[in-house]
Amino acid sequence: MTNTTQHQQTPAPTHEHAPEHTPRMQMAKLAPEVYKAVLALEIASRKGLDPALVELVKIRASQVNHCAFCLDMHTKDAIAHGESVDRIVQLAAWEESRHFYTEKELAAIEFTEAVTVLTDGFVPDEVYAKAAKHFEERELAQLIAVIATINVWNRIGVTTRLVPGHYKPGMYQS
Length: 174
Known about the structure:
Blueprint: H1 27-30, H2 32-46, H3 51-65, H4 68-80, H5 85-90, H6 103-117, H7 125-134, H8 137-160
């Protein structure tokens, strides 16, 4: 006797994504002088720093600030410039994934969090000292500028509700 039970195919579940939100405003059009000034700060802040490190810093600050647009942009740019997906994914849990990063990168990531959050109203001396150990004074000044600049962009992105998902690597570079 054979089993003649027929196997019915269950249709694959459809997963509709939530609707995309719309931005509140287009700040670049409404305040072009401000946008151009922040863009100039962006360009100046990166000078002399390793581009891969800059992207890690920008991703980490954007994670802390919950800026989806900046996360979309900087993860795509980092991957386009050869950064590994593993290092990007582990960045949110860098303290438990230290082995993915150099000591210099770890100092920059920790410094980024301290400058971004300012929970106690200051950057702890030990965090500053660790960063100063790994960066020459000029590099450290540039790192502070990069962190400050991404925090400006994050606040613009979150407040104006910039929409993630449409960025293509390098699309804002001239």
